[in-house]
Amino acid sequence: MKENIKNIIGMTLFVIFIMGIFIAIYFFGIAGIFELIGVQYQSIWSLIIFVISIFILGLPVDLVLGSMAELTVEKIRGKITAFVIQFLFGFVTNWVVIFIVDVFMSGINLSPGAKLVSSLILTIFESVFGNEKNKHRKEAV
Questions:
Q1: What is the pLDDT of residues 26-68, one digit of tens each?
Q2: Would you say 115 and 30 are in contact if contact means Cβ atoms under 8 Å apart?
Q3: 115 touches 74 (CB < 8 A)
Q4: Which position among 1, 58, 95, 99 has the lowest Cβ density within 10 Å, counted as fewest Cβ atoms?
Q5: Are the beta carbons of 101 and 109 closer than 8 angstroms?
Q6: Got the DSSP string for 19-68?
Q7: Exposed, middle or buried by CB within 10 Å (0-12, 13-18, 19+), for 118?
Q8: φ, ψ for residue 109 (rounded to 5)?
Q9: Using the 8-state DSSP alphabet, how is residue 108 labeled?
Q10: From CA 38, how far away is CA 32, in angstroms rounded?
């Protein structure tokens, strides 16, 4: 009984630690993008809340639009066309999430150009780092 509780606590702490690492990488990435495109924010806490909100809202939106992208690309034969369609779905996903979070937050105000540029940069990073996952999946099938 005690060993089960220790295992559950250990796994929970491990999952929290891993999620913290992902959120930290995401935070510093968005903070860097905002620094490059000149976005101003009221405090570091507003930026942290903004990043966490994007991360939390992005999960279900990416699940839905990512599935739509996968289903669409399944029927396409050309690799370049498939990449462009996945890229566009990723761009729209990032833009929608950033737009929604920006609407509800007053600590950070993004111009339309900053929303587009940050969505584009995030999509480029996701497509660069996400292609390894797709390569391994295609090799397994």
A1: 788 878 888 888 788 888 888 888 888 988 899 999 999 989 9
A2: no
A3: no
A4: 1
A5: no
A6: HHHHHHHHHHHHHHHHHHHT--BS-HHHHHHHHHHHHHHHHHHHHHHHHH
A7: buried
A8: -120, 115
A9: B
A10: 10
